[in-house]
Specification:
- The chain is an all-beta fold.
- The chain has one helix and eight strands.
- The N and C termini lie far apart (about 45 Å).
Length: about 140
């Protein structure tokens, strides 16, 4: 089984997971290079989070995919522990790349797969792959 860093194609950051079940590296579903991270198996009213910290400014890019109950169970991206996600997806969504600009400073970044109180849809899981962070350097 690949480590989270290997599965995300980025070992420059320390990747952590918490919640009801932890994210893990796997080889079955991926966008790039034969592996990706997958959300842990959760039930209704549960969540699982994959997170790290990054030093901006820079651009964060990654691929994500979800198979969930549409408009009920979400894979969401958060910056700096806010209660509102920067972006989120639900339903049966194939791999898509997203990009976010992070301002100067240290930022906590987390991907959270969360289920609502009832029902199931799709495979009830989420995947993330090929995380890139392009730091901006300023010349004086």
């Amino acid at each position: 089984t690949p480590s989270l860093g290997q599965a995300l194609d980025n070992t420059n950051f320390t990747w952590n997971s918490n919640g009801t079940a932890k994210w893990f590296g796997q080889y079955d579903t991926f966008f790039f290079d034969g592996d990706a991270a997958q959300s842990g198996k959760i039930s209704n009213n549960q969540w699982t989070s994959l997170y790290t910290t990054m030093m901006g400014p820079g651009t964060l890019k990654f691929y994500w995919k979800v198979s969930s109950e549409y408009n009920k169970d979400y894979l969401s991206f958060y910056v700096d522990d806010t209660s509102n996600p920067v972006d989120r997806i639900s339903g049966v969504a194939d791999w898509q790349q997203v990009s976010f600009y992070l301002l100067s400073g240290i930022h906590s970044c987390s991907l959270v797969y969360q289920k609502d109180a009832s029902n199931y849809g799709g495979s009830d899981t989420a995947w993330v792959d090929k995380i890139e962070f392009i730091t901006e350097f300023f010349l004086s």
